[in-house]
Amino acid sequence: MAKYTVITMPGDGIGNQVLPESLRVLKAVGFNAEYIHADIGWDCWCAQGNALPERTIELLTKHKLGLFGAITSKPNKAAQAELKPELQGKGYVYYSPIVTMRQRFNLDICMRPCVGFTGNPLNYIRKRAGDAPGFDEPKIDTTVFRQGTEGMYAGVEWTNPPENVRAALNSHPRFKAFANVPGPELAVSCRIITRNAARRICTAAFEYAKKRGFNGVTICEKPNVVRETSGMMEEVAKEVAKNYAGIALWSTNIDAQLMWLNKNPEEYNVIVASNLFGDILSDAFAGLVGGLGFAASGNIGDEVAVFEPTHGSAPKYAELDPPIVNPIAMILSAAMMLDHVNEGQKAERIRKAIADVVSEGKVRTYDMMRIAGGAKSIGQGAASTMQMTDAILEKLK
Ligand code: NAI
Ligand code: MG
């Protein structure tokens, strides 16, 4: 019997192209696992009115470890229109299955490493200071700890809020400015932060900093304006910091942080933030180290953990044969899964093999060549998805 059982959820579009590549790599490093396929995503929504089927939930509950590709989400009107005719008008509401999964299993620690590989032509560079010629290519090693279950993604929101909600809003003096807005003209999304979840994400960030030997953690919020929720995040970060002698707590505002990352990104190794800010930050930092083709993530709860590239289903490339998208983000996500189950040496081997392929520079997917993606990219010298994996497998030999 295999030591681990992993639930594989390729989902939609390019999720189906990249997830199998990660399994080839896991096999090559001798990860002793069996894999069970589970459905998730747009087709499930259209056929069942539910993008996260019960069987998938049961499998994750039982086996506790998941690899996820990507899903397609569409706005409400499109979601309703594509629902199977028998299900239309029956009150089905589309919810993103990944957001639902995070909430259902309390996958509240969302970890997103943005680590540059030497020689990646997509790496951030900056002009040297003063009149010195040339440019610097700082080594970026940033991991964003994004709270995964609450904040702006808590899902408590309305257009045309019901009477009792409206009454509650009216009780706040600042709501006076909106008191006369007609219901259908008014949309409200609640940003919810709980002290316990804030403590867990801040602790995860500090634990990681301790493990990696970093001397600081940055809490990135906006407590001067969003006083209650960002205020609580920052307050909790300060409390948690007291347990970590030798690791400083720095505080930045989300807007300023996005400016700093264009000036001195190498100075931020660990950043912790609430859900939406963490989402924005991790995409922004990912852009400095190769973009979506390199951005991996883990959604980690006490029981269940699911690992996924942060990119979506990229529908415009989903039908290309051979596929052209970069499998590295997915493969790095699989490596994070290995870290999670204490198979860190295998994870390191994978990262080293990727580093070797990138620094050698012979095999590059279209995104790494800075050319337009499409059926023509392979003719222009880009590697296919499989060829990139082949190159990584070659380094693992
Ligand atoms: P996307 O991430 O699917 O694609 C944006 C662009 O990034 C692509 O067109 C492509 O140019 C590039 N890209 C993405 N992955 C790549 C890879 N592995 N290699 C090379 N290039 C890559 O985001 P988009 O277009 O905004 O959304 C498409 C669909 O995906 C939507 O339905 C959206 O809701 C969904 N989505 C799902 C996510 C998830 O499953 N976690 C995350 C983001 C979007
Ligand atoms: Mg995102």
CATH hierarchy, class of the largest domain: Alpha Beta
Radius of gyration: 22 Å
Per DSSP, the total helix count is 13
- Morphology call: globular
CATH architecture of the largest domain, by name, is 3-Layer(aba) Sandwich
**Number of separate structural domains:** 3
How much strand? 15-25%
**Alpha-beta classification:** alpha/beta
Number of strands: 14
Helix coverage percent:
25-40%
Determine the mean pLDDT. 97
CATH homologous superfamily identity of the largest domain: Isopropylmalate Dehydrogenase
Order of helices and strands: EHEHHEHHEEEEEHEHEHEHEHEEHHH
The biggest beta sheet, please?
10 strands, mixed
Q: Which kinds of small molecule does this entry bind, naming each only once?
A: 1,4-dihydronicotinamide adenine dinucleotide, magnesium ion
Low-confidence region ranges: none
The separation of the N and C termini measures 25 Å
Strand order of the largest sheet: 2-1-3-14-13-4-7-12-10-11
Keywords:
single chain; 397 residues; alpha/beta; Isopropylmalate Dehydrogenase; 3 domains; ten-stranded mixed β-sheet; two-stranded antiparallel sheet; 13 helices; 37% helix; globular; binds 1,4-dihydronicotinamide adenine dinucleotide; binds magnesium ion
